[in-house]
């Protein structure tokens, strides 16, 4: 790759960021399209976030992804935040429009596209058991409700956090019924027979941890399972689900789909089909 004075620069803000797979994905797409562009990781400490955002304008960096721990705090430094990102309260993509910075959240889009592509699953009219009530679960809840999920049950170890999440969005999505559940086998067993999608929105599984509270025997045999955690090999949740006959997918598809959505926002072009996935498979 030849870097010139005309090369458009994209990147990712995070802390830490050396583990990010995004450079592999986006640089592969740039190469496939013959674009004069490069994607680089920027390690940005939380106390320097304001300076880093200002540098987007000063250095004419065309766009960045935003990851932990900056997704919520970056909103204060942007000129505009689109409606979906404002509702979620987090931004994972920033587009520099000639010095005017616009924030987006493509996590929800990535989830819905992954469910369709990897599991042939449409949330409309379906019942979803969502594990967790943190930032990732928040984005997932909004995306699922916007897509027409009939029922979303939020199970969290800290019940008040789940209650607050549901209370915030219940009136905003009157077409979806919400429930708060304890993350305990007895509570989950009561709803598992009617669940169409089991979705892990926590970080459990990233280091090989397992959910002790899941009553697998009660889970609807036709239910599909999605884990937002990406791990190689698969997370224990995905492996257990498949061993019990459920269609299941990890977070790779969501990672790719949200990256493809960011690519469209920045370039106005469609990333070549399969290129980002192939880059991560090498």
TrEMBL record:
Keyword Phosphoprotein (UniProt): no
Residues passing through the membrane, by range: none
Ranges for domain Quinate/shikimate 5-dehydrogenase/glutamyl-tRNA reductase: 122-172
Listed Gene3D superfamilies: Leucine Dehydrogenase, chain A, domain 1 (3.40.50.10860), NAD(P)-binding Rossmann-like Domain (3.40.50.720)
InterPro entries: Aminoacid_DH-like_N_sf, NAD(P)-bd_dom_sf, SDH_C, Shikimate_DH, Shikimate_DH-bd_N, Shikimate_DH_fam, Shikm_DH/Glu-tRNA_Rdtase
HAMAP family: Shikimate_DH_AroE (MF_00222)
Catalytic activity, EC: 1.1.1.25
Keyword Cytoplasm: no
UniProt entry keywords in alphabetical sequence: Amino-acid biosynthesis, Aromatic amino acid biosynthesis, NADP, Oxidoreductase
GO terms, molecular function: NADP binding; shikimate 3-dehydrogenase (NADP+) activity
Domain SDH C-terminal, chain residue ranges per copy: 251-280
The name this protein goes by in its record: Shikimate dehydrogenase (NADP(+))
Family, similarity comment: Belongs to the shikimate dehydrogenase family.
Assembly and binders: Homodimer.
GO cellular component: cytosol
UniProt binding sites for NADP(+): 132-136, 156-161, 228, 251
Function statement: Involved in the biosynthesis of the chorismate, which leads to the biosynthesis of aromatic amino acids. Catalyzes the reversible NADPH linked reduction of 3-dehydroshikimate (DHSA) to yield shikimate (SA).
């Amino acid at each position: 790759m030849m870097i010139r004075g005309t090369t458009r620069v994209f990147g990712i803000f995070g802390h830490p960021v050396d583990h990010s797979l995004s450079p592999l994905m986006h640089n592969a797409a740039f190469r496939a399209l013959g674009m004069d562009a490069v994607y680089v990781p920027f390690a940005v400490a939380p106390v320097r976030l304001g300076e880093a955002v200002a540098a987007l304008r000063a250095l004419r960096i065309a766009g960045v992804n935003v990851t932990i721990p900056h997704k919520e705090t970056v909103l204060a430094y942007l000129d505009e935040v689109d409606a979906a990102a404002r509702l979620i309260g987090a931004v994972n993509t920033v587009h520099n429009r000639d010095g005017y910075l616009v924030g987006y959240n493509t996590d929800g889009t990535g989830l819905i596209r992954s469910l369709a592509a990897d599991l042939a699953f449409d949330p409309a009219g379906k019942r979803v058991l969502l594990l967790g009530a943190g930032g990732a679960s928040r984005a997932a809840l909004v995306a699922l409700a916007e897509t027409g999920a009939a029922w979303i049950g939020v199970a969290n170890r800290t019940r008040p956090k789940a209650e607050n999440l549901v209370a915030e969005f219940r009136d905003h999505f009157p077409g979806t019924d919400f429930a708060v559940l304890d993350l305990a086998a007895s509570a989950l067993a009561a709803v598992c027979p009617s669940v169409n999608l089991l979705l892990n929105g926590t970080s459990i599984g990233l280091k090989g941890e397992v959910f002790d509270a899941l009553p697998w025997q009660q889970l609807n045999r036709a239910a599909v399972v999605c884990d937002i955690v990406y791990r190689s090999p698969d997370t224990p949740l995905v492996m257990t689900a498949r061993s019990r006959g459920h269609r299941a997918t990890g977070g790779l598809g969501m990672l790719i789909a949200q990256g493809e959505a960011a690519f469209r926002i920045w370039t106005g072009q469609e990333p070549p089909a399969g290129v980002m996935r192939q880059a991560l498979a090498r």
